[in-house]
Every structure is written in C-alpha cells, then in structure tokens.
TrEMBL record:
GO molecular function, one term: D-glutamate cyclase activity
Domain of life, per lineage: Eukaryota
GO biological process: glutamate metabolic process
InterPro entries: Putative_hydro-lyase (IPR038021)
SUPFAM superfamilies cross-referenced by the UniProt entry: PSTPO5379-like (SSF160920)
Name of the protein in question: DUF1445 domain-containing protein
Length: 164
C-alpha cells in the first residue's frame, strides 16, 4: 500500500498522471469507496442496468454516466449520495483509473492502457459497480485477514482465509 495516497482524489491524480498503481489499488485511500468501471455503447446500457438490478450482491450499481457520452459526471444509485460526491471534482472517467482493459466484439484488444481517451465516443455510458476493496479496511479493523489469491494469472483477487 502506498501510505501517501489517502484520498480518492489523490489516487485519481496519480493514475491520470501515469504514475499508475501497477500493484493494484487495494489499500489505497482507506475509507473511500472503490469501484469497478465498465464502459459500454449506449445500446447495452439498459441491459447492463437490469443485470445489476437483478444481481445486486455481485454487481451493486453505484453510479452511471449522467448522460450518454458524459465522462465527468454521474448519476448516483446510492440513496442520499449525490453523483458529484461519488466522482469528486475534476474527475475524468477516461483517464483516472489505474489501467483499462479494452474489449471489442468480446475480444481483448488492449491490455493495461493508461487511458481510453482515443476509444471514448459520445455514445458511451460508464457504470461504476461495487468493489470488495471498499470494505477491506473494515475487515482489517476487526482483525480479519484478507489475503490475495494469486493463482489466476497473477491477478490480485481477495478473499478471507478460513480454516473450517
């Protein structure tokens, strides 16, 4: 964990300025909500929104683009939380994640891109869905050890180590 990154705004700034968190974002900005970003052509937006509504545990929908093509404002799906409280001032969805994976026709075209400015169109809709990193701090505070499972292509997938 990089102890100098304590806010979501700092994490976005570091990502945007190509000082990426190559080891992942787990542990960054403790106490702030982390999310997974999915960007789709607008023709798939209703289907994805419905998927999230029908599967709120694995796909909790936090927010989505305020309008089609909007890259800097979202509509919140969390009660009593405004969209500007989710993204923060000056956020740019196309540049503020640590890295992006670009798929076209279900095939990976680009891996670990620093931004998706060239790919972004006025037809895109961004969705933010919940991420387990958001509650790791709470688990750690209760002395629950959260360990990475590195067995799947070295990915940083978290889980709780239990002895049954």
């Amino acid at each position: 964990m990089n102890a100098s990154i304590v806010t979501g705004q700092q994490a976005r700034f570091v990502s945007r300025n190509n000082k990426s968190h190559k080891a992942g974002t787990s542990g960054l900005a403790p106490g702030y909500l982390q999310a997974n970003l999915i960007i789709l052509p607008s023709r798939y937006a209703n289907d994805f929104r419905n998927l999230c509504a029908r599967n709120p545990v694995p796909c909790p929908l936090i927010a989505e683009s305020a309008t089609k093509g909007c890259d800097n404002a979202v509509i919140s799906h969390i009660d009593k939380v405004r969209g500007d409280e989710i993204l923060g001032e000056g956020c740019d969805i196309r540049r503020d994640a640590p890295h992006y994976m670009v798929y076209k026709d279900s095939k990976l075209e680009k891996s670990h891109c620093n931004d998706v400015v060239a790919e972004w169109t006025d037809d895109h809709v961004a969705f933010l869905i919940g991420c387990s990193y958001s509650f790791e701090t709470a688990l750690a505070a209760d002395d629950v050890e959260v360990v990475p499972f590195g067995g799947v292509s070295g990915r940083d997938v978290r889980g709780v180590d239990e002895a049954v």
